[in-house]
Design brief:
Largest sheet: none
Order of helices and strands: HHHHH
Radius of gyration: 24 Å
Number of helices: 5
Oligomer: single chain
Distance between the termini: 65 Å
Length: 81
């Protein structure tokens, strides 16, 4: 069920938003609704592991004492010799 909402915004922002909505063939209401929906989505959905990341999981075996910062420093030193 749709409800009305009154907002107070800077006039320049309103004009830019209207222009953006028009150039993207949508209404300002739909644009704001989409934005608020993306802000308030359940955080669990954004932390899902994608199939690509899951397929790459376990590809590299690293020792327990592996230090990524030291390895990157060594890489940079070698690269810029």
């Amino acid at each position: 069920m749709d409800k009305k909402l009154t907002l107070s915004l800077d006039q320049a922002i309103i004009e830019r938003a209207k222009h953006y909505a028009k150039s993207n063939n949508t209404s300002l209401s739909k644009l704001i609704q989409s934005y608020l929906n993306s802000l308030t989505k359940n955080q669990e959905a954004s932390s899902e592991i994608t199939p690509l990341v899951e397929s790459l999981s376990g590809v590299i075996d690293l020792t327990q004492d592996f230090n990524a910062k030291d390895a990157y420093s060594d890489y940079l030193l070698e690269k810029y010799k």
